[in-house]
Design goal:
about 0% helix, about 50% strand, about 120 residues, globular, mainly beta
């Protein structure tokens, strides 16, 4: 069983930066594709960024491209989301998820971490 725990959220001002972490209790290593999602109040959960098993490829939502960077350290079983130039519209609960095979959906989800960006 794998548990995902997000951390690093908080209250910041527009233009600031935050780095979110997603630590896996079990061995994530290179077995899982890792994805960050977010959900703002009253809105559906949306894709933010994804990183492949080896970290060789990354994908981003257009709304965060050029501002956010996803990375992973398989030796530490941790995935990161570096968020720069934050905007009020980035305010949301951020979740990480792990998928062994994207075609089968996500196997594990974290509990989320709140990010609030004030204008």
């Amino acid at each position: 069983q794998v548990q995902l725990v997000e951390s690093g959220g908080g209250l910041v001002q527009a233009g600031d930066s935050l780095r979110l972490s997603c630590a896996a209790s079990g061995r994530i290593s290179s077995n899982y594709v890792m994805t960050w999602f977010r959900q703002a109040p009253g809105k559906e959960r949306e894709f933010v960024a994804r990183i492949t098993r080896s970290g060789g490829s990354t994908y981003y939502a257009d709304s965060v491209k050029g501002r956010f960077t996803i990375s992973r350290d398989n030796a530490k079983n941790t995935v990161y989301l570096q968020m720069n130039s934050l905007k009020p519209e980035d305010t949301a609960v951020y979740y990480c998820a792990a998928a062994k095979a994207m075609s089968s959906g996500y196997d594990y989800w974290g509990q989320g971490t709140q990010v609030t960006v004030s204008s």
